[in-house]
Design a protein that fits this description.
The complex is a heterodimer of chains A (327) and B (737). Chain A has 327 residues and is of the alpha+beta class. In chain A, 28% of the residues lie in helices and 22% in strands. Chain A starts with a strand and ends with a helix. Chain B has 737 residues and is α+β, with helices and mostly antiparallel strands. Chain B has three domains: 146 residues, Aldehyde Oxidoreductase, domain 4; 178 residues, Alpha-Beta Complex (Aldehyde Oxidoreductase, domain 3); 237 residues, Aldehyde oxidase/xanthine dehydrogenase, molybdopterin binding domain (Aldehyde Oxidoreductase, domain 4). Chain B is globular, with a radius of gyration of 27 Å. Classes of the chains: A alpha+beta (327), B alpha+beta (737). The structure holds flavin-adenine dinucleotide (FAD). The site of flavin-adenine dinucleotide has 35 residues of chain A, from strand 2, helix 2, helix 6, helix 7 and strand 8.
Chain lengths: 327, 737
């Protein structure tokens, strides 16, 4: 780890101001919530910040508030708190499960919801200090010629990372919004629009600027007749990111699908929503054949690399199972 | 064999140092803090094969806080145990794999030391390299050593390794059918919890090294030799140790680096490996490519086995590179040729039962497949072919393999649960599998001193390091039993070469048999001295006396007795018993522990994920000295096998020749969730040569585990997986309809 200075801040405003100041001074600065992910990068010297702005000391950013409109989740809420929240478990069980599928109990106790959505890729080339890859300002994505068993099968290029978050697909499937504070004030945008593909920017996974901070996640109340699922395939039952995951929300009425969301994790550089599959499902009664067809559509256009062809079948199987379970 | 009545041996006894360990009070090597101590870090080669042209440390030296920098141009120290068949230095030039040590820095804190590494400028001339063992044996492969890449032999190891008895050609002729196949295992890291760490301090000309080692005596010898010091001037201390599973035997390069840095800086130094250093800078289990030819009769009886294999030893050869998984079967005609081969990859050497689990995986899979092809139940196949004679000639000192198979199968319910492979249908495929394992049981040099105090408490002084197996407790239990005093009266002094007698090293499952035997002999020495005085008091002959529970009494009339304390008082202040033992068994005998493992799995047809639902491990380890720690040993071994079967493999990125998963997260070492309840069964056994009838239990448990799991996956899916690890992607590809 490189020597750095830690600054405990007391408010979002103070944090934004500091980040602006450091950016102006061309200093390398980063915010941390629980630090569970960022510290890993620092230890292997992939991240070498001069300053760390510690958001954990901001009072009042850790909450889950429920009203008729849905849930508002403070940025500093831990994954464990989200997982165990009674209201969330009652109304959005699969969101609680998605939180509970992440990492390990220790990391869920420390890791925050905002940190989870902003975590950097767990690509082994990105996390190796000796591979100066595209995402770290280098020239190439090492996965192309290297070992790409866990890399993107869809939406990749020129970088082929997969977005590592378990929460993100579930939240995108729920039409969640994200609130961001920055030098120009606050804005709230659909979470889906938060993530950026490598074609837009191969060095960042989201739209945050150097002085932007996530302050809240807003989850609308589930629509009547809707059911959500989160399935995650992995090699180890804890402490392992998704090889492929799928979040589905299906709203049914009178024996047919009214609206649907199908979002894949672990397959693309961003949580991968597949509107075509959603469109296909609308108005249909889901049976195994329809589920299978939707799964085919969801993976349409997948372009696997040499080691990750299996992800296509895996993703199809998960989509199919989630949809069949939705009826 | 019926077990003797014991008072302390054979119970489930909590570790005597368990409290300190679980409350964080135990002082491990990493906890050692000395006044003025510096911290050290190691710079490693980014190239798989390169000549170092120059090392410029001027910028690093100018960094405030940097106190010493050592590298191949200013430090020529031999690392004797780092290379058996080639002279290996602590810093080598050329460097031969990504991770080979280039330099080490000591600074006032860890972060300065790390910063300094970045400031060292090394000029390399890249050399051609080879990563695959099979490719390395081709005549046009880049040569890592002048003689080529097939590791050469010396007095201790050979290359290729050959073993043979009977006549395989005759055996194949006698066979009704001959099968051939190839199995592949990968490099997996020992991944012990405690990373490598060493603290060195010089007091004038005397060096003290606080090591994390599996053998203080060997470590002392190695360090003394490397630094040209008399043994009396080297003290190695290891009081609590956080495991090594074979990769902390002897002294390692970092112990010597630490000593040299401390000498150069004139201050104590602590050198710590990061987890990444630990994965690439030491060694893991050798990968292998095993080609079998097996002749069998129609009923499955083996007539001949021929094994041709390549093992990948990485850049240096520290140990044998052998494959010994056929040891558990009765093979009348056998021929083995194993070629330990060098590549420009991380070194492979000892990891718990070094030559077994990968090779049991291959051969037990082979037999399981043959059983399937012949329509024989695997249970009958394994039972029929279980080993009866060692290496085609020697008799075992004891052998309860049959009981392991029969009792283990009964416990898991083999006959009710087994179905032909591939017969399971539905979303979850169920399967059951088994394999045989074990490990050599040997006798050898042990030493112990026992000091019986005036109050009838005792110090047992042994060179043993408790590497996590519970050896301290085992030694105390053996001493209590042999002396005839309660366990809580025993204190153990261990792990300090200035104080404790020789120990061969806590590896190769020999602590209990080697040092345990010496503890019994030292206890007998104490008892002899006690009985000599007590005989006078009790008006009996010394040989008519016994001592139990702190009371000396007449065997023929237990009522005629005296407390031990009184007897001691008659002698002097304390009684010292000592022994150096080196027992043997008669010519024509051989020793072994035996195991039969069984498990059930559930394979998810949609994801290829496998869940282990049950595991039964049946073992013949002779008399069990401590049921609690012995059971833990079996569980731990199985867990490591689970990792090796399902997920673990050190991946080397081909284009950059760099390991890409050298950490716990990416190496996917199993967590508790991967582990079912492991049911451990020790069959009734006792060996005539082991201490109190005991045989080893440390290494046997890992041997059978990988093959057992692989066979269960075959039974569930009807697909044979011939390459480890058996990951969900491989399974999914095989079973996808
Ligand atoms: C071994 C391991 C396994 C894991 N497995 C999984 C898994 O299976 N599934 C999964 O979903 N996650 C997984 N994770 C990620 C884990 O969920 C995150 O570590 C955790 O949620 C991050 O939260 P944190 O508060 O500790 O973030 P930090 O480490 O503090 O920050 C993470 C990143 O987010 C940024 N950040 C944090 N808070 C904010 C904010 N309010 N505004 C803007 N940027 C912010 C930081 O600058 C940093 O870049 C794993 C992590 C580890 C270390």
């Amino acid at each position: 780890m490189k020597t750095f200075e830690n600054v405990d801040v007391k408010s979002v405003k103070e944090a934004v101001g500091l980040l602006q100041k450091f950016a102006g001074e061309k200093k390398n600065a980063a915010v941390v919530g629980g630090g569970s992910e960022y510290l890993q990068l620092m230890k292997v010297r992939v991240a070498t910040p001069d300053y760390i702005v510690n958001l954990k000391t901001i009072p009042g950013l850790n909450y889950i508030k429920e009203d008729a409109g849905g849930f508002r989740i403070g940025a500093l809420t831990t994954l464990a708190e989200l997982e165990e929240h009674k209201g969330v478990q009652e109304k959005l069980l699969f969101l609680s499960q998605a939180a509970g599928e992440a990492a390990s109990p220790q990391i869920r106790n420390a890791g925050t919801v905002a940190g989870n959505l902003c975590q950097r890729p767990f690509c082994w080339y990105f996390r190796s200090a000796s591979h100066v890859c595209l995402r770290k300002g280098g020239e190439i994505c090492y996965s192309v010629a290297g070992d790409n068993r866990y890399h993107a099968i869809i939406g990749g290029g020129p970088s082929y990372i997969v977005h590592p978050s378990d929460l993100a697909p579930a939240l995108v499937a729920l039409d969640a919004k994200i609130k961001i504070a920055g030098p120009a004030g606050e804005k709230t945008i659909p979470l889906e629009k938060f993530f950026v593909t490598p074609q837009v920017n191969a060095r960042r996974e989201n739209i945050l600027g150097p002085a932007d901070i996530v302050t809240e996640i807003q989850v609308p109340a589930p629509k009547t007749g809707s059911k959500g699922f989160y399935y995650k395939a992995r090699e180890r039952q804890a402490w392992d990111h998704a090889i492929v995951s799928v979040a589905t929300v299906v709203q049914s009425g009178s024996g047919a699908v009214r609206d649907a969301r199908v979002v894949l994790g672990g397959v693309a550089p961003i949580p991968w929503r597949v509107p075509k599959a959603e469109e296909f499902l609308r108005g249909k009664a889901i049976d195994d054949a329809a589920a299978q067809k939707a799964a085919e559509i969801a993976l349409d256009g997948a372009r696997p690399m040499k080691d990750n062809v299996y992800k296509i079948d895996l993703a199809k199987n998960l989509v199919r199972q989630a949809l069949v379970a939705s009826v | 064999m019926a077990q003797k009545e014991f008072s302390v041996v054979g119970k489930a006894t909590p570790r005597i140092d368990g409290f300190e360990r679980v409350t964080g009070k135990a002082e491990y090597t990493g906890d050692v803090q000395l006044p003025g101590m510096l911290y050290a870090r190691v710079l490693r080669s980014p190239h798989p094969h390169a000549k170092i042209l120059s090392i410029d440390t001027s910028k690093a030296e100018k960094l405030p806080g940097v106190k010493a920098i050592v590298h191949s141009f200013n430090t020529q120290v031999t690392w004797a145990s780092g290379g058996l068949t080639q002279k290996r230095m602590i810093f080598n030039n050329p460097v031969r794999y990504v991770g080979d040590a280039v330099a080490a820095v000591a600074a006032t804190d860890r972060y300065i030391a790390e910063d300094a590494l970045e400031l060292i400028e090394v000029k390399y001339e890249k050399l051609p390299y080879v990563l695959d063992a099979a490719a390395a044996l081709k005549s046009d492969a880049p040569k890592i050593y002048p003689k080529g890449n097939l590791s050469v032999g010396d007095g201790r190891v050979t290359a290729p390794i050959r073993e043979q008895w009977g006549d395989v050609e005759k055996g194949f002729k006698e066979a009704d059918k001959v099968f051939e196949d190839t199995y592949i295992s990968k490099h997996v890291n020992n991944a012990q919890m405690e990373r490598r760490v060493s603290v060195a301090k010089w007091d004038g000309a005397k060096l003290t090294v606080y090591a994390s080692t599996q053998g203080i005596s060997n470590a002392r010898g190695d360090i003394a030799k490397a630094l040209d010091l008399p043994l009396s001037r080297v003290r190695v201390v290891c009081k609590y140790m956080g495991a090594g599973f074979g990769n902390k035997n002897q002294a390692q390069d970092y112990d010597m680096m630490t000593a040299v840095l401390a000498k150069t800086a004139g201050q104590p130094v602590k050198l710590e490996f990061t987890r990444e250093d630990d994965f690439i800078g030491m060694h893991g289990r050798w990968a292998s490519e095993q080609h079998y030819k097996v002749g069998v009769k129609k009923d499955g009886t083996i007539t001949a086995v021929e094994l041709n294999a390549i093992t990948n030893m990485g850049a240096y050869r520290k140990q044998s590179g052998d494959l010994t998984g056929c040891d558990f079967y009765n093979i009348p005609n056998y021929k083995k040729v194993v070629s330990p081969t060098h590549t420009n990859t991380v070194v492979a050497a000892n990891y718990r039962a070094p030559a077994y689990p990968q090779s049991v995986f291959g051969f037990a899979s082979m037999l399981d497949q043959i059983a399937f092809d012949l329509g024989v139940n695997p249970y009958d196949m394994f039972l029929k072919n279980r080993v009866r004679v060692s290496k085609g000639k020697s008799q075992f000192t004891s052998n309860e393999m049959e009981a392991c198979i029969v009792e283990g199968a009964k416990k898991i319910g083999w006959q009710e649960k087994w179905h032909p492979a591939g017969a399971s249908k539905g979303a979850k495929l169920h399967g059951i599998g088994m394999a045989l394992g074990g490990y050599p049981f040997r006798l050898g040099l042990g030493a112990a001193t026992i000091r019986l105090n005036p109050d009838a408490t005792a110090h047992v002084i042994v060179g043993v390091v408790d590497i996590g197996t519970g050896a301290k407790s085992t030694m105390a239990i053996i001493a209590a039993e042999a002396l005839g005093i309660p366990l809580d009266q025993i204190q153990l002094a261990s792990g300090d070469t200035d104080v404790t007698p020789y120990s061969i090293g806590e590896s190769s499952s020999r602590t209990t048999s080697f040092t345990g035997t010496a503890v019994i002999a030292a206890a007998e020495d104490v008892r002899k001295q006690i009985f000599a005085v007590a005989a006078r008091e009790l008006e009996a002959k010394p040989e008519e006396l016994d001592l139990k529970n702190g009371i000396v009494f007449l065997k023929s009339n237990p009522g005629q007795k005296m407390p031990l304390v009184k007897a001691i008082r008659k002698v002097e202040s304390e009684i010292i018993g000592r022994a150096t033992t080196n027992p043997t068994w008669p010519e024509g005998f051989d020793g072994k522990c035996f195991a039969a493992h069984f498990c059930e799995v559930e394979v998810d047809r949609f994801t290829g994920q496998v869940r282990l639902t049950r595991y039964v491990a049946a073992h013949d380890s002779g008399t069990i000295i401590n049921r609690l720690t012995a059971t833990s040993q079996v569980k731990g071994g199985v867990v490591q096998g689970i990792g090796m079967a399902f997920t673990e493999e050190l991946l080397i990125d081909r284009p950059t020749a760099t390991p890409i998963n050298p950490n716990y997260r990416d190496a996917k070492v199993p967590t508790h969730l991967e582990v079912p309840e492991i049911e451990v069964l020790f069959v009734d056994a006792s060996d005539p040569y082991g201490p109190f009838g005991g045989k080893p239990v440390g290494e046997p448990p890992i041997t059978a585990s990988v093959g057992t799991i692989a066979n269960a996956i075959f039974n569930a899916t009807g697909k044979r997986f011939k390459e480890l690890p058996i990951t969900p992607d491989k399974i999914l590809r095989a079973i996808q309809v």
